[in-house]
């Protein structure tokens, strides 16, 4: 569908639901990535989608000069798509991350340089060392079991506007909206770069914002650790 994105206009969409704790770091990282991309000839527009926010997320975005759009969806698929619709005309490339995530400086430039319809990157967990050892072990075991799978993370995803429009965008799904989008792209023979080394730093919180997302996985693994500890204590 696409062959390259030299001198692209990049639209960056960040859904947020009561993210005042993480949003400043997220926006600072995005601004650095935007400046890096602009230094290489790209144009960048950032938008934060405030989904049912009741905290200071809107104020924080305004303090950084970032455009916002508000929805009351409670639905990450709808929030991401609303962000796309809020972008100006002429966008060539769409980049998606989450409000509890920090992207590397070269994130946008690397996505546009891939030359494919979509780019799916990886994630690191922040506060890794502060997680209980049992939880870290279970998370690593889970990752090893899925090491050959092609991972899709909404916190680290890029797609050309041409491909996105051909797919009619994100579906209004409360979870796995990112996987659904890429599966439809694959079914249409779109080209994908699996950029495992292009990683973002995302929150290791176990209080899930999206059902069946990373936070939900960590919560499940945390509960398994607690169940094992309780069983061991009973046996003792």
UniProtKB/TrEMBL annotation:
Protein name: Glycosyl transferase
Gene3D superfamilies, sorted: Spore Coat Polysaccharide Biosynthesis Protein SpsA, Chain A
Glycosyltransferase 2-like domain boundaries: 12-144
Domain of life, source organism: Bacteria
Any Pfam family matching the protein: Glycos_transf_2
One annotated GO molecular function: transferase activity
Subcellular localization(s) per the UniProt record: Cell membrane
UniProt cross-references to InterPro entries, sorted A to Z: Glyco_trans_2-like, Nucleotide-diphossugar_trans
UniProtKB keywords: Cell membrane, Glycosyltransferase, Membrane, Transferase
Naturally occurring in which organism (per UniProt): Kushneria pakistanensis
Keyword match Transmembrane: no
PANTHER family: GLYCOSYLTRANSFERASE, GLYCOSYLTRANSFERASE 2-LIKE DOMAIN-CONTAINING PROTEIN
Entry keyword Cell membrane: yes
């Amino acid at each position: 569908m696409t062959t390259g994105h030299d001198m692209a206009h990049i639209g960056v969409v960040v859904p947020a639901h009561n993210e005042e704790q993480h949003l400043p770091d997220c926006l600072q990282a995005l601004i650095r990535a935007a400046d890096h991309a602009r230094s290489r000839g790209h144009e960048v527009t950032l938008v934060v989608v405030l989904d049912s926010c009741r905290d200071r997320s809107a104020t924080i975005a305004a303090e950084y000069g970032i455009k916002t759009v508000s929805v009351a969806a409670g639905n990450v698929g709808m929030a991401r798509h609303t962000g796309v619709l809020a972008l100006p005309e002429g966008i060539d490339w769409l980049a998606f991350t989450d409000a509890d995530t920090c992207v590397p400086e070269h994130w946008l430039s690397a996505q546009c340089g891939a030359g494919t319809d979509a780019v799916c990157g990886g994630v690191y967990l922040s506060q890794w060392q502060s997680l209980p050892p049992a939880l870290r072990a279970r998370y690593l075991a889970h990752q090893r079991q899925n090491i050959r799978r092609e991972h899709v993370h909404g916190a680290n995803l890029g797609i050309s506007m041409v491909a996105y429009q051909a797919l009619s965008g994100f579906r209004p799904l409360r979870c796995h909206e990112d996987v659904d989008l890429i599966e439809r792209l694959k079914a249409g023979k779109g080209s994908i770069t699996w950029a495992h080394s292009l990683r973002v730093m995302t929150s290791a919180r176990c209080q899930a914002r999206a059902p069946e997302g990373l936070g939900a996985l960590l919560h499940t693994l945390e509960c398994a650790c607690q169940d094992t500890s309780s069983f061991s204590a009973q046996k003792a």
